[in-house]
Amino acid sequence: MLFEPIDKGLKNIVFIYTTCSSIEEARSLGFSSVNEKLAISADYWFLDSIYLWNGVIREGNQYMLMLATQKELSEELIKHIEIRHSYHIPMIARCDVPMTNHLYHSWVENILTNKDEYISEAEEKMKEHNEEYKDSRLK
Predict the structure, then answer these.
(1) Each residue of 19-37: pLDDT tens digit?
(2) What residue spans define the domains of the chain?
(3) What is the per-residue pLDDT for 118?
(4) Cβ neighbours of residue 68 under 8 Å, at least 6 residues apart?
(5) Mind listing the pLDDT tens digit for each residue in 28-73?
(6) What share of the chain is helix, strand, coil (3-state, %, to 5)?
(7) Dihedral (CA of 18, 67, 113, 28) sign
């Protein structure tokens, strides 16, 4: 069976949601969360919002940020977001994921427990370019 309930206690996968004021804030929170191994991934998308603030119904544009992580890291991830968030009162919600496929669950667990450093896509391209340059000089 591809999908089945997984109960691994604190290793269960959860999603953390927060709204951000801009794409830059969503990207920044996403990158810092993944880089510090508090989340395995960050997805963000544009949304129109209607909300009550200081007694006024307001309408505005925001970005929703969804971070995938393990339950045991969720409190630390929420604190990470709270410290860096631009809103005075940010919406931060945790949603438990009762079902996931085994391959994804294993990938999340392997990445978040691995102590290796990450590199950016730009660093990866530079590394590949340098290796190609070295290879071409050897010929």
Answers:
(1) 999 999 999 999 999 999 9
(2) 3-138
(3) 79
(4) 13, 14, 15, 39, 40, 41, 108
(5) 999 999 999 999 999 999 999 999 989 999 999 999 999 999 999 9
(6) 45, 35, 25
(7) negative
Return the sign of the alpha-carbon dihedral for residues 58, 45, 39, 1. positive
Query: Domain 3-138, what fold?
Result: Alpha-Beta Plaits (3.30.70)
Is the pLDDT score of 102 beyond 90? Answer: no
CA distances to 38, 67, 94, 130 from 108, rounded to whole Å, are 11, 12, 17, 30
What average pLDDT does range 98-125 have in this prediction?
85
pLDDT attached to residue 64: 98
Q: How far is CA 139 from CA 61, 125, 126, 130, 131, in A?
A: 55, 21, 20, 15, 13
**In this structure, what token pair is assigned to residue 104?**
């994804």
Give the containing element (helix H, strand E) for 100.
strand 99-101
